Structures are given as structure tokens and as C-alpha cells.
Amino acid sequence: MDHIDHVLIVDDDRDIRELVSGYLKRNGLRVTLAADGRQMRSFLEHDRVDLVVLDIMMPGDDGLVLCRELRAGRHAATPVLMLTARNDEMDRILGLEMGADDYLAKPFAARELLARIKAILRRARMLPPNLQISEAGQLLSFGNWRLDTIARHLLDGDGTAVALSGAEYRLLRVFLDHPQRVLSRDQLLNLTQGREAELFERSVDLLVSRLRQRLRDDAREPSHIKTVRNEGYVLAMPVEITRARP
Predict the structure, then answer these.
(1) Measured between alpha carbons, how far is 76 from 183 in angstroms, rounded to an integer?
(2) Residues 6+ apart with CB under 8 A from 45
(3) Whole-number percent of the chain with pLDDT over 90
(4) CA-to-CA separations, 197 to 90, 96, 176, in angstroms, rounded
(5) 87 falls in which pLDDT band (50, 70, 90)?
(6) Is the pLDDT of residue 130 over 60?
(7) Which has more confidence, 58 or 91?
(8) Do residues 82 and 69 lie in contact, with contact meaning Cβ atoms separated by under 8 Å?
(9) pLDDT at 233
(10) What is the pLDDT of residues 144-177, one digit of tens each?
(11) Where would I find the Response regulatory domain in this sequence (predicted)?
(12) Is 1 exposed, middle or buried (0-12, 13-18, 19+ CB in 10 A)?
């Protein structure tokens, strides 16, 4: 049987939940509804979904808190699309920093929401199976560094954790999923930010620079993330899975 994508909609507005649910179901998706973080947690405690549509402005734990919670737990790899009534650039940046894959401001057309959901799911599955290594184990080793993909910690050779922002973590994950392959700026934008890439077009180089600092790379002659002139960047070393999930 063909897989039917399962979407969890978390929104305190009952009308929006039902309207969106009806539209997505008519377009071939399976849909589960949650009115708040408590219902979301209750469902995800026993089930998995392919994508979460998460409203930012909700009573109790808001969408930013819930997104951060998802990224810190066993659903860390589940794509998240954020919704909000505020068309505020800071909200978009905060949502993406928390680990959201895309952002859509209310009011929105159901057709656009469906298009974004399909685009996110397509990006999530675009890597060849042999490159999707980061979801197969808890620790990824490269050089003297290790990335704990469950706790989302970068560990140096002494086991000391180095803090990463959400954007830095996502960028490092992309490099670790594509070791020793040149990635263009467009590819990096698409794999880390998706449709919100326009917010970061001028900051890809800055983000790479920040990540190099975290890895204590020499700015002039980096050994981990190298610049390939006129092409992009490459993680210039192999990646090994050092501890598999139980």
C-alpha cells in the first residue's frame, strides 16, 4: 500500500483546524487535530506523523515553545511548519531558529498551505538513503568532533559541549548528511531554510563563518568546512556513525 502522508495540525482556533483539515483530506493527506500542546504531546507520545503544522499564538505553551520541545525529543527530525497571525519578521526568524522548516502568516490560502506542506515533505525526502546518515545514529564523528543528533549537542575531543544556534545546527546537519560533497549556496539555503531562504540569502557566508568558529577552524585555512571557489562549500572529511540507536 502506498504511504499516505500524515499531518498533525496544532491550532487553538477550531474553525481553522476544521477548514484546513477538510481541505488537506480532500487532497489525499491523513490529518490529526490538536487544540494545544497538551493534546499534541498526548498524540505524539504513541504515534508519529510526517509533518506538524504548528500555530505560534496559542494559550499556554505557544508554538515556539512547542517547536523547541519537538526538536529536543524523539520527534526532532519531524518537519514543522509554523503558523501565526502576526506577519512579523522577528517571529519568522525566531521560528526558524527554533527549528521550524517553514513559516506561513495568517490569513493564508489553503492551497498555499498544501503547496508548502508538499514542498517540505519533498525536501525531507530528497536525500538519497545512503546519505541520510544522521537519523540512523546518535553520534556522528568527523575529525575530532562529534554531533549528538538526539540531544543536538556538538562535542569536542574532550567531550565538552559547544552551544549551537538552531540555524547553526541545521547547517552542520546538512554538511554531515553530505560529507565531502560540494554544496552551492542555493542548496544550503534550500536544505536549511526552504521557502524562507529569502530572509537569509545574504547571510549564508556569515552562518558558515559562525559554524567555523564553533569548530575552531582557522579562518584563512579552514580544515573542516572548505570554500570551493565559484561553487560553494564542502565538509572536507568523512563522517562516521559511532553509536547506533537502540
Answers:
(1) 24
(2) none
(3) 32
(4) 14, 10, 20
(5) low
(6) no
(7) 58
(8) no
(9) 93
(10) 999 987 777 788 888 888 877 777 888 898 899 8
(11) 6-121
(12) exposed
Give the Cα separation of 150 and 76 in Å (integer): 7
Residue with cell 525526502: 125
Instruction: Tell me the pLDDT band of 113, cut-offs 50, 70 and 90.
Output: very high
The residue among 173, 21, 205, 27 whose CA lies nearest residue 101 is 173
Can you tell me the distance from the alpha carbon of 203 to that of 157, in angstroms, rounded to the nearest whole number?
Answer: 29
Our measurement of the distance from residue 69's CA atom to the centroid of its chain's CA atoms, rounded to an integer in Å, reads: 13
Closest to 210 measured CA to CA, from 164, 152, 170: 164
Q: How far apart are CA 29 and CA 211, in angstroms?
A: 37
Q: What is the distance between the alpha carbons of residues 150 and 237, in angstroms, rounded to a whole number? A: 22
Write b or e for each residue in 25-48: b if 16 or more Cβ atoms lie within 10 A of its Cβ, otherwise e. eeeebebbbbbbbeebbebbeeee
Cβ atoms 233, 187 nearer than 8 A: no
pLDDT in the model for residue 122: 79
Q: Is the backbone peptide bond immediately before 129 cis, with ω within 30 degrees of 0?
A: no
